[in-house]
């Protein structure tokens, strides 16, 4: 017995082999894990994560949908086949009895049998078509990127809902039920002609079945929890609700009409008791903010239906988190029901916490690794809540179980970035504070939802503005990106006056930045009684600190003109002691490309009150000098000073020439000349100021300084083609002045270069014809007039039979010869030498484009000028 209990050699061998196999499998798993760890991890953005999650859920949903409908359609086809066979058998049985003398009741029974058969065949046909429709839907999203496949699949799913695909397929059982009712009725009528006792039994059973069906249907309509649901229940319930609502509306209108009739009757009985004037109630502006919603709202994002479908369908917290992360980057429509989505987001947010007891009261403990999911769901909830509030719909439920978590973790240190973001999310969810930080993405989301966050919380506009501005002052946030800055503007404007709901819910408001700035200054001007000067200065200074000039979208010149006009009116109305506010306001209206103002130089804005500009220029210059380390400080301005002076000079360049003084102060003239030295946007603005204020150039007291500094205009004109026409116009106005002739005589190359640049831009339509100051002929006449007056006064071209184009070429050659005779060859004139040599060679070879080629049969009968080298857009001009 003892020998039998010992394991045999085979058992020991099998045991050893098993242990070896286990070790081998374990090592294989370890190697597989190591290989997976060595593979490069591909980081997916939120879009890729969302669409990957979407397609995973879509595959599961579509598989269930196809299985459900396929089973229903197969059942319909089987029942329709069997039932049509039974109907056909009865039709064949009673068909020989049909004749011209058949009783009416027999004909009715036969007709109902045929109708029943046709109804059954129609149900079978629709079932076959339903199979084809399912195959077409199942083919969605088979090609393209994952985003394209997801969008195509969502469009087809929306098509199923829009065209009531489910309702159409749910009609098939109703058709079969109708066919069965018709068959029973026909059978009862047929038996009535044969034996009334049997017919009464069949009719009684038919009525019993019909009554039971109606009773079950009524219980399903009355109670959604009833298990006897049928396809007819949802539309029946909706129809009953519509009827009840219509009856309620009729009842309210009838009561209102009865009150009016009673009031009219009372006036007739006692007219003296009703001789007061009626009360006209003005509707507040905030209730009219949806009036202009449509043009501002635009189209909703294409991904919105996909996000809605996931939030409505999925119960997986990770899928809901991916959809929530995607939701905050989309433009949502205002007419969508967001309550079910917000309910799902609120539940998912709450699932990231567990209820605990800390000894005094219940608190919400954050689950491990649940912070990112809570952040996504909380952001999406507040995002959709903002849209609902902006659209005027009340929120049916607010999340409340998260306040204790915030209070418990108020003093917690060393938080992870996810937990810090969650703290900001909870603060906004509970309307405790704005929750700004140095992360730009968090600021953008917080500023987006802020306009509807503190509705009715503050007692006055001043209190609300003070709280809002302190969020940026205490955290020292500056230089927001363009999208976040536009959201900031929307918040400030909304605190001062209502903002259009369509604009408020728009995710990217960069295209409306100019409009929001205009509304800001208009609102500050209207609210002078409610906010004092100090608070106005804080609003403007904080906005200027957060403002980023570069990187924004392009705006039309009309928008820029309107903004500059509004800002100028605002600054002119400020008290004398608010010069810093004027400087900040001018910075907000600055133009990134100053040369664009040259397009408005011929149709100026004509800003009337410009005294504030001169005061602000002198203030900025003095502040810069006070901050210098030594009295002999650098000539170059710092970045802040240069930006302020550029914006102020832009305003001065758009001012009405009649409103400018005859000569500027010495300080302002020094600022303009210093700006010309910078060769930047400040230099362009200074040039445009001199072009606008040509009275300063002709002033006997000021022109000596300008004549000595005139050479500084050359690099500005040569570097900015938009300024060429301004230079020609200015030169044409002052070149005939005796004291200015020597200045022009020494620099023909600049004059010729400005002329060729201007004509080239006109010929190739590089400038908008609406803003083109002069035509080709006018440009040539100005050029020839100045050349003839300064460089070739002894030459008279009248009566020579030369057209204007050749006239320009001849005068150019004469002027170049004079310029070479007077040119001082020295080491510091290398650039002048190159410019003059290039102009001479280009003009001699006739490759410089002077104007449009005229037809041979032109009205003046002149010979057309044809350049020997063909000029194209690729031709290089210097």
TrEMBL record:
The keyword Transmembrane applies. Pfam families: DUF6535 (PF20153). Keywords: Membrane, Transmembrane, Transmembrane helix. Residues 96-193 form the DUF6535 domain. The chain crosses the membrane at residues 76-94, 106-129, 171-192, 198-222. This is DUF6535 domain-containing protein. It comes from Mycena metata.
